[in-house]
Amino acid sequence: MTDTVPAPAAVAPATAPAAATNTYEFVVAMSCGGCSGAVTRALAKVEGIESYTVDLATQRVKVTTALPRETIFEVIKKTGKAVKDAPVEPVQPVQPEQPKEATA
What we know:
104 residues; alpha+beta; 2 helices; 20% helix
């Protein structure tokens, strides 16, 4: 079961500076729909979250927000579920293309 929920849009004054938006991913110990529901309900109450996905099958929670990572971590932790940062997949460096030698 995956719940993807866009948070209600907040109207900011035109003069307010735009905060940087980040996406955080956590591994959360969820064994049933009640567990994922508890996380979903907790995230739904937090102002400043643009969207979130709670995936019971993969035990992953992904949150897009301008709030600090620590704030989201603590919200999930307060549900009583074990939570940790999701491992970051390594990015393979792109090899620059070698210039071709001119043939005469």
